[in-house]
Amino acid sequence: xxxxxxxxxxxxxxxxxxxxxxxxxxxxxxxxxxxxxxxxxxxxxxxxxxxxxxxxxxxxxxxxxxxxxxxxxxxxxxxxxxxxxxxxxxxxxxxxxxxxxxxxxxxxxxxxxxxxxxxxxxxxxxxxxxxxxxxxxxxxxxxxxxxxxxxxxxxxxxxxxxxxxxxxxxxxxxxxxxxxxxxxxxxxxxxxxxxxxxxxxxxxxxxxxxxxxxxxxxxxxxxxxxxxxxxxxxxxxxxxxxxxxxxxxxxxxxxxxxxxxxxxxxxxxxxxxxxxxxxxxxxxxxxxxxxxxxxxxxxxxxxxxxxxxxxxxxxxxx
Amino acid sequence: xxxxxxxxxxxxxxxxxxxxxxxxxxxxxxxxxxxxxxxxxxxxxxxxxxxxxxxxxxxxxxxxxxxxxxxxxxxxxxxxxxxxxxxxxxxxxxxxxxxxxxxxxxxxxxxxxxxxxxxxxxxxxxxxxxxxxxxxxxxxxxxxxxxxxxxxxxxxxxxxxxxxxxxxxxxxxxxxxxxxxxxxxxxxxxxxxxxxxxxxxxxxxxxxxxxxxxxxxxxxxxxxxxxxxxxxxxxxxxxxxxxxxxxxxxxxxxxxxxxxxxxxxxxxxxxxxxxxxxxxxxxxxxxxxxxxxxxxxxxxxxxxxxxxxxxxxxxxxxxxxxxxxxxxx
Lengths: 318, 329
What we know:
Largest sheet of chain B: 8 strands, mixed
Largest interface: A-B, 42 and 44 residues
Strand order of the largest sheet of chain A: 6-7-8-3-9-10-11
Structural class of chain A: alpha/beta
Order of helices and strands of chain B: EEEHEEHEHHHEHEHEEHHEE
Oligomer: heterodimer
Structural class of chain B: alpha/beta
Largest sheet of chain A: 7 strands, mixed
Strand content of chain A: 15-25%
Helix content of chain B: 25-40%
Number of helices of chain A: 11
């Protein structure tokens, strides 16, 4: 594997019973990079994220192939104790709904301290002190008093900041953020994304940002990977992909966004809907909804092209 | 011609600890016939309560709603039932708003049954026409809701809302739960139907680019109050309330050319314990001493730099001295 990759997902396959959910997903991330993983519900972006943390529920799901290298080590081959040591220490994760990710029965302070005590040799007193610093660093006002609060006493934005503080407690090099701002209001979303961007710039944190919002990716990510039906269909630098999208699905998604259209006009729409994993079309998954499909698209699965701008399409946007 | 006249609407909810959360505080506005009024604001700002209060699904504490000149808050239940033929609502969640044990045909027909419109065969034909109108095959009538995707279910909800040919429709986050590729289909459908049937529409949303796309006029809400209202394009291009400005600048855009992004500092206040002055002043980059003391009224104001008139609730802009059309626009 290449030297400079912090994370290298290599042909990852995950199945739910007999149904493939991820089909040869390959991705690489460098240190300090923000990669946006976009797609609609059911496209496999969250399964990808959970796989990195080895959090996919097995059974009913099963990892049937591939490797996930983090700093050169294959996470899929780690023993349970090594895995526990890696989770939270080397890789942090935050989820969409900060209320259900925090334990409602414990004060915020003890939940942050728990992460520190689990992975380091410091005393409880030292952990509490660091927790204050962590809360301050994620922009919580009056961190000492916030430590003594329960999650329900905080606003949605503050809860997500607490989640980020926990995820970053052991200074991981990679943060997986699965729709971290979807449950939040736009002005609060901007505050959280700015915070992640600052952490990336100042501490070299790599962020895998999973979202359905193309605008968020455009504004904050260095690179973008678009998923559809369990596959990456396009991947490249955000500047290039948004300026010249090549996959028909990426193009269509960008076109449907109201902000990209004149108010009041008829919006370009993608006909049909995303097929469920069990009835995924055999060749190109997007073929039945594509307005530029060729005969070949229904017969032969397209391969994902070469870096730096990979596209899985027989008839890409010229 | 005004279809809906809303004056001084107030509604509070009791919080668990006994404190009061003011979901609507002195909300006043008009909706003209055939107009699409977009209501935007963050979660908990009172926009859903507003939509439901207009249909009297929620009883207000104070204030009045005139529908076509008739006050709805004093209506008896029989008159209210007749009025409900004219006002319908579409909800956000297309999974929770359709009865899973009824066929789609029965769901769409139910308003006709309730209001005893037409004979049985007529109702059946009307249901088929409605399904066709929203882009579903007439065979859908025999199916159950779970057989449909989120976007298709929202089409069913729209067909049901249109069954009685209402004059006024509330769409409460009607496209927010849908995936991007489906969202545009439903926005197109709503726009088409609104224009073809000249329905007056109150479109509630939190995604400004969606609301901008669909509405002629907009009202921006914050903590139970309308803080700015006006023509959609003038609000989107020249917002004057600092909250509206922050909201617009926070939209993640696809084009790089978007101007300076305003990232707010400070925290959202606890809605049960709002500060005495302007509710936005804890986050406002331009807050002045007066903002912490005095509640700014929603009124016509003058932007000094340009001399143009706006309707906003903000001390930054002096109120016009001319007799005020209080809060109405």
